[in-house]
Amino acid sequence: MHIASPAPRASSTGEAAPGLRERNRVRRTRRVERAALELALEHGVDVVTVDMICEASDVSPRTYFNYFGTKEGALLGPAPSTPSSEAVDEFVHARGPIVEDLMIIMARAFFATESDPEVFAMRRLLFEREPALQSLRLMRLADKRQATAAIVRRRLAVQHPELTEDEASDQTHLVVSIVMGAFPVISRQWLAHPGDAAHAETLIRAAIDKIRRIVTPDA
Amino acid sequence: MHIASPAPRASSTGEAAPGLRERNRVRRTRRVERAALELALEHGVDVVTVDMICEASDVSPRTYFNYFGTKEGALLGPAPSTPSSEAVDEFVHARGPIVEDLMIIMARAFFATESDPEVFAMRRLLFEREPALQSLRLMRLADKRQATAAIVRRRLAVQHPELTEDEASDQTHLVVSIVMGAFPVISRQWLAHPGDAAHAETLIRAAIDKIRRIVTPDA
DNA sequence: CTGTATTTTTGCAGTCTCTGCACTTTTGCG
DNA sequence: CGCAAAAGTGCAGAGACTGCAAAAATACAG
Question: Could you confirm whether the keyword DNA-binding appears in this record (chains A, B) (predicted)?
Fold first, then answer.
């Protein structure tokens, strides 16, 4: 099984003093991720072994697993952070179009995970080349799916108490599916134009518009 | 990596004479699947080992992997068969609503994979209990995503040559996302009411309708 | 600076999944 | 029956991953 157990990844309390410990952790993470990506890009994911990565980045395999949990961990990068409970509450009570609202909080959570831009670029390249990795990533997302579904459900309960259990359930699943499905498309466009956050919302609206046109039978 | 390599699974040429060989294969498959599911339901997927399954079903581990490719193979069941090239051609030139058409051929391919009803039931139960398996299943589907995207693309090229490369690409991704996303919802409803094929199309239309309403801002 | 407590890294041994290869058994068929 | 093809099996080995305890690094007084 082990869908991915990215390990603790302790986050510092606030921002105060990074401290040597923390700085080392970050440095090491970067080093390993970079090594892993370089190797994977050069030889292909299947050929690369954890031992190779460890030798290249000079950490023990045991430490590698402490950090990343799985062989692919260093390639996939940190899992998107869970939205804060305030953000969730805001979503639950927001009254905009539900898909749009959900998409927005997901996008925020997604781009909140900072990462070395160079590493980020390599990752993109690798993902394009190896669709299997994309799938793995989706799997990790799927784990969040339940959580996401839960907050959608909450919103529906609050705003549409008239729905039956089944209706609400179906609608929840559909909303989550649409959003998670459209997400890659939007993030692709976003990455093509390194615009600002406002631009992101425009993209989101445009995508939703496209979806509407797709599901609406031609006039 | 090995997202799933379900192994050959040679299909007989037609229907003529099953032959002892074929009959044995089927028998063994059933036996192993059943054993795997029983063990997984009783002890949990993570606890069960391939060796346990093999001992319970009296095949060598090597044979197990020849049949199922991965530990989870016997739990997941056969991968949905790829739609026939005639079906694909039909889809490419069909002029109905694209999501509906795609959904229909996917549904056909999906239900074409027959399986022992008892095994089927156990599988459903297990999937409910272990969401990680669902994710694995999604991963296998994601592998088909590329293939699916390709035929959607073909249809767009034929029916909407006016679209730019990028537009077509975006639209393709969105269509595939929507369909694959909505699929579980529909199959859930379908399984709840073991209706006939015609009923399936009704469900599909209803789901698409719901999607439209979801993405359409409230009046 | 020094000594101590705490956290992190590491080595090691072991389990489990999965693969290639060679060998045996089973099945198909003339 | 006898031979050829196909399928099942055993074995050895690589690679992913885990628990545990020793070792090293870091924090933190005094």
Answer: yes
